[in-house]
Write a structure and sequence with these properties.
This protein has 128 residues and is α+β, with helices and mostly antiparallel strands. 17% of the residues lie in helices and 54% in strands. Keywords: Signal.
């Protein structure tokens, strides 16, 4: 067999491994502590995370949601609501929201969340 055929065969064997192997090198350290914002119904929501504590400030701090975080891994957590002052909240005390980071680009964190059989994707932007 000549060298061209050998190289071609190697490429045929190795290329699918490279193509179908997904390497997740997302470093989610920036999510564990910091101040972030996201937008909901054209309103800017401020979020602070301090390792296991999560607080959201709605309507410039008029309403808050406090949650405890349980980190499943570096890029995935469960937030259990411990207090909310939002009238008619989407979720209540003791409800658990699952959050998984899909990717990070600079200071933007793209995620998927689910709670009470509802799922959505969103983006947090780190501001500090």
């Amino acid at each position: 067999m000549n060298k061209v055929k050998i190289i071609f065969l190697l490429l045929i064997c190795v290329l699918p491994l490279i193509t179908f192997t997904q390497i997740d090198n997302t470093n989610c350290d920036l999510l564990h502590n910091g101040t972030f914002i996201y937008f909901y119904n054209n309103e800017k929501i401020k979020v602070t995370i301090n390792e296991n504590n999560h607080t959201e400030y709605h309507e410039n701090g008029k309403y808050v949601i406090h949650s405890k975080l349980f980190w499943i891994n570096d890029c995935e957590f469960v937030a259990t609501c411990v207090k909310t002052t939002i009238p008619k909240p989407f979720y209540r005390v003791d409800d658990q929201m699952h959050v998984k980071v899909n990717r990070i680009y600079k200071n933007e964190i793209y995620f998927t969340s689910s709670i009470n059989r509802n799922e959505w994707s969103g983006k947090l932007v780190r501001i500090d």
